[in-house]
Queue: 3 jobs
Job 1
Amino acid sequence: MEMIQKLSLAGLVPVIKVEDAADAVPLCKALSDGGLPVAEITFRSAAAEEAIRRVHEELPHVILGAGTVLTPEQADRAKDAGAAYIVSPGLNPQVVTHCQKAGLPIVPGCANPSDIEAALSLGLQTVKFFPAEALGGLELIKAMSAPYGNVTFLPTGGVSEKNLKDYLSFPKVIACGGSWMVPAEAVAAKDWKRIESLTRRAVSLMLGLELRHVGINSASPEQAKKDADMLAKLLELEVKDGNASIFAGTAFEMMKKPFRGTHGHIAIACDHLPRARWHLEKRGFAFDEDTCTKKNGKPAAIYLRDEIAGFAFHLLQK
């Protein structure tokens, strides 16, 4: 899978500074256990190269990048240590071309249209937008996207729990870089459980998983109507009759004949279906590819392969 696609599916890239290489593995393990098997270890400390090497050797499943790479020599050291991609704060053509010749994906920092045109001239389509909030945030990204329709962005700098969903809601933002789930004091205290907890909360926020409706298998259209009417009476809901089912409000769908699941199905809405699927697969869930439906060429719904408590579950794009 192309590196940019991997970062897009991850959605959030923890940007970390490691002062002690011995902290790198437990730190990245905490990120992975919290649901983010991805890390950008910055070359802002002397321990960066050794930290990357240790994570690469002991946690090979982590999508590992090297950040704050300023020179070709640093890029070579990062690659030799095990980094799978490079991120730089600015656009240095010498560093970009060096990485391209080495077959090493690079996401350089861009701050304005001139930077973007320089990136395009080097054959790049995805750039880091840095420092994102200081430069104008999402509004500036949207403004620059108008003339550069094929460019995608990885904003970093000032991204937090407060604005993460805003950034990711814009289709040209493939992922965000952030560090709030890795507070310096937690690293210093080696409080890996806190980092794991903060990461899990960030992933939950990003995916936006929420119950959309419960589908209940009825034995007949008549039974479906009766059950829908009872739910509507109980909760003062509107009944809407359809071809295959009857809805009571938006939360209950009574199937006119047995459908998926022993008892029925449960729809879980999400902000970005491919991203939610990727993360759930990392948790051990499998999907039934034959059930994938699309709308306007994009995934709209897909079922889990296995039932839970007698119900089929499917993701639903919000």
Job 2
Amino acid sequence: MYEIFADLHVHIGRSENGKPIKITAAKSLNFANIAKECAEKKGIHVVGIIDCASPYVIEDIENFLKTGEAYELKDGGIIYQDKVCILLGSEVETAEKGRNGKCGSAHNVCFFPHLEDIKGFSKELSQHLKNITLSTQRTDLSGYELIDIVEKYNGILIPAHVFTPHKSYYGNCTNRLENIFKEKFEKIFAIELGLSSDTYLADTISELENRTFLTNSDAHSLPKIAREYNKMVVEDISFQEIVKALKQEEGRKVIANYGLDPKLGKYHRTYCDDCNKSIETKEPVDNCPMCGGKNVTFGVFDRIELIKDKKETKSPKNRPPYIYQIPLGFIPGVGGKTITKLLDAFGTEMNILHKLSQDDIEAVVGEKVARNIENARRGNCQVQSGGGGNYGKVSVKEKK
């Protein structure tokens, strides 16, 4: 058994020949570039690419395998340069009967062991949406129906960023996942927290006590890969091993979640779109207390306050620690040129965040930047809450 880092939610912006896949993602995000970024810069051992049901991406994967740099595993997944295991995934938007009978929508990340599996899934999924070539298109399926199709092709389903206001189960569909999945809820063995929540918020909801929590980046550009990630114990890197870790089977498990302070997330607090300000009242509100308007985006913190059924956080004994991790790009004074210097000297972002001393870093980028990185690693920072699609802000403070 050994420890690995995994980020299971990375988007593709364009195919190799420039076809759009995820419209809001960077053009540089293609299958090959993601594999190289994880191997050469990030130090991520397992990456979930969640736009692989697009026929354009399937074609790219087939061509990628022909290069000889990558190969499929019997236990599932594609190995690149013997360093990174790529899980073939699809993000699917389901249509749900939301709160008060209104129509809601939710995102799901689905992973499949082999290319042939996701090919079959893609073909069937194309019958339930308008354009299979684009990522995360709205389907006519519910989560209850989708999970059967996913399992038909040997896959697993994980509810994505479950608390975000626009496209998630708790955010705009339901107060309880069990209401959606009913008797199939036992098949949901992991959920993705999203950037605006953490373990301590999610563990105020009792139905999640036996579910594994995942912290993933939802990256829409190469630098955003591994802004959140998971540390797991596995015997090897493969689809099968990751599934065992998510199910906590045979000693495999998630042993730490590394994520942003949820205040840094774009939807942490309710936000008034007229005032352009976060609403940080003690009690959740539907109207802006400053202008009285109803043009507000409900925040993750406030949603959880409304739907939680525990008075305080009480995590199960086997819940791994949630470690607040400030990505290099969020740290004051650490821009693109500084990150390039650090990567040239030390290899990967995981090395910089987890292994190096402050003196090592200082030798490359100077005392001030090294001190900022060290303070961020130790949690010596102040965070201004984000909301309404705007990230929070970090200021690094030294402890007295």
Job 3
Amino acid sequence: MTSTLSPAWRRCIGTGRAALSLRSDHRDALERAQAEIGFDHIRGHGLLSDAMGVVRAAEHEGRRFLHHSFTYVDQVIDGYLAAGIRPFLELGFMPEELASGSDTVFWWKGNITPPRSYEEWSRLVSALLRHLIDRHGIDEVRTWPIEVWNEPNLTVFWKDADQAEYFRLYEATARTVKDVDDRLQVGGPAISPGADDWWVPFAEFVEGREVPVDFLAFHAYTSGPAQNVPFGTYQTLRHPHDLLRQFGAPAQLLAGSPLAARPKHVTEFNSSYRPDNPIHDTAYNAAYLAPVLANGGDLVDSFSYWTLSDVFEEAGVPTSLFHGGFGLLTHGLIPKPTYHLYAFMRRLGETILARGDDHLVTTDGTRISALLWVPLTGTGGDEPDRHRVHVSVPTAVPEWFMARSRVNEDEGNAHTAWRLMGRPPFPGHHQLRALHQAAEPARDFSRLPSVGGRLEIDVHLGRNEITLLELDPYTDHTPAWVDDSRLLGES
């Protein structure tokens, strides 16, 4: 029985904070990812934070005036569109001139307090959206989801994690969005893992007050409490299937509510929620997340890897090239194993031929492509060093040419090479060349015959491996006079 592979895995990618997109190294990372993966939307924090300069204040004749400035907003969004990606707008954090307090989060100090005037906040939201519509057209902006705030269930992101105050913010924002244009998409509550107790109150609030909700937004991670070391963090992990459980939870918790049928966007997910956890740099992370990318689209409309690049500063400027950053790409554009997982996914076909706990086999009608992985549990020492995958699919083609690309602990893995170098925090030019070389997936080629109308594929995977198989029907075009045994001129 066949089915279609959902594109939900590449419908969005995270970016940290919006102002990073003003930097050339971040733009270079986005350009590379778009060429090799091709994400649809990009989402980050801080679109309205002070680094973006959206609110300016002035005094005149004893009166306070506010001016909205979208100079940096335009540069960021124009850059996204030029790269072939659309924004997923997160409205936050609070501009200082509108804030009711001075509490901030992150090294770059995003203000987490409610507005002192909801009228001023609504004027800012309205001005922003009307400006974007004037600049890009209503049909374009209608394709940009608008998310209200980030993880308001946590005190680090929303003053006192005040649920009632967030509902007030959500209502004011959603009504403002719809006043601008009723077909703009607005949603929330953008909650973190462990906040399932927010779903029912949120549903009751928006239904009772008839507040617009076009989609549900939430986050998913599987890491345990932080075990801090200098400039780093270690954490336990739950089974990767727990991410899929989190993806499916809102539909179950809201069963019977009109919200249950709304589109669902996981606007952040990863193994660890920390930007300094070495797991992100490893082959383990890629194999761990492979079943999530293979199956997550059955549960949600999008799930956004957090994040595109290690050009990211929530905990400050990184202290080393490999530092456990969220990014698919390091500073200097070295792809991590999880980047290759995404690049492998991009080369799969749309029609699913077979799927299981360690494989996803697809076709585009002519070619067959398969993603294989070592199934991991998150239990560390109990993970297998080797794993055999057997796949059998029906075919009328008698013989196939197969290209295999693989990433594991020793191949396609710059992090391993970096450790062998002695973990230089800031590698020199020759070391960087070696790391780029080490990051290339290993490749080999072979021919496979069909047997009894089936293609039988038997592959052995190394430790923490992901493998991409790409198969094309084999046709022999060798001219009759070609004889490879005579390469040295012998008759």
